[in-house]
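ugh ok fine here u go
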Amino acid sequence: MKLSEDSIRQEIKYKVFFIDEPKLYDWLYRHSFFQESYCPRMVNSLYFDTSNYDFASSNMSGESKRIKVRARWYSELDEDFLDGFLSDSKVFNFEVKRKINSLSDKVNIGEIKFDKKDDFSYRVETIQNELSSVCDKYLTLSSLKLLSTVFTNYEREYYELNSDSKIRITIDKNISYCNSKVPSDLMLMAKDFIIVELKFHPELRNKVNKLMKDFPFRQVRSSKFLSSLAQIQRVSY
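structure:
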C-alpha cells in the first residue's frame, strides 16, 4: 500500500470538553490565523467491516498499515438523519481511508445514487451490494466480504490557515451513532466533549509545530468508528 502524494496528510486529534469550548474559539479567533472555510454541515457515514471485524482489530492493535471503508454523504444541519438516509436524490460516496503509521489519505472508489425513497433494509443492502461490486475492481479489496456495521453522524465546522489551505482544522460536535442493522434514532456518543482535528501535509510539520505551540489542548487518540462499534458492543475500545 502506497499513499497518494496528492492527498497524503497527517492528522492530530484533540478532545475538548464543553466547559472549555470558549477557550477553543478564543484561540481560533484571537490567537491564530485560521478562518472559517466552509459552512457547517452534517457528516454521515455508514461503515463496513469483515465478519471478524478485521478493520477494527487492526486499528485497535495499532498495526502500521490499516484501512477503513465507508459510504459517506452530507446533509444540512436541520435534516433528520433517518429521513435523509432514505430520501430520493441522495448520493453516497464510497471511501477508503488508508493509514500508514501517522500518515493517511482518503481514496474515493465510487458512488451510488438513488432517485426514489426506499425502506431501510433495502437501502442498506443495496449500498452494501454496490460497494461489493466496486471493491471487485481493486485487487486489495476484491477478496473481502464487507458487511455494514454502524452509522456515525456529527456536525462539522471547517477552518483553514489564512496563508496555507493545506493546514486545516475541523471541529466535530454532537457525535452520534446507531446500529446499521435496524432503523433507530441516533444516540449521542459525545455527551460532554467535541473532537478537534488538525490536518496538514507532512512536509508542513515544522510550520504546524510553531503554529500550534500555544494550542491549549492535548493530543488524543480517537476513532468515531471504533467508539461507535464499542457502543453497540461489537468491540471493546
